[in-house]
Amino acid sequence: MRHKHADLIHAWAEGAEIECREICSSDMWTGYHKSSSPQWRDDFEYRIKPTPKPDVVWYASPRIGGDMCAFMSKIPVAESNLKLTFDGETGELKSAEVIK
């Protein structure tokens, strides 16, 4: 009979980072240090650690006047004077940098 976690055991043996959580008692995934190995228990769920989404950068040209206060672009333009970095996972603003 094939082991319940056979695919993940194979992925771990090939170098994948594995996370686990106890079934029905935790919403939080815990990773393993590279020097330790998962226990492969039946009462735990296992997964390959997801790749985090990269940060998103927008460039802005704030101007006050009329009905518009800013122009934003994913690439810097000559008028850009503000660089905004957003967390790729949450969409929250991480940093704002004046570039001119």
Describe the fold and architecture.
It is a single chain. The chain has 100 residues and is mainly β. It has two domains: 43 residues, no CATH class; 43 residues. It contains one helix and seven strands. The strands form two sheets. The chain has a four-stranded antiparallel β-sheet with strand order 5-4-6-7, with no helix packed on it. It has a three-stranded antiparallel β-sheet with strand order 2-1-3. Strand 6 and strand 7 form a beta hairpin. The longest helix is centred in the N-terminal third of the chain and has 8 residues. The chain is elongated. The model has no long low-confidence stretch (mean pLDDT 87).
Strand order of the largest sheet: 5-4-6-7
Number of strands: 7
Spatial gap, N to C terminus:
65 Å
Mean pLDDT: 87
N to C succession of SSEs: HEEEEEEE
Number of structural domains: 2
Which overall shape is indicated by the principal axes computed on the Cα atoms?
A: elongated
User: What is the beta-strand fraction?
Assistant: 25-35%
Largest sheet: 4 strands, antiparallel
Which structural class is indicated by helix and strand composition? mainly beta
Give the fraction of residues assigned to helices: under 10%
Tell me the number of helical segments per DSSP (H or I, 4 or more residues long).
Answer: 1
- Unreliable spans are none
Q: Cα-atom Rg, whole angstroms?
A: 22 Å
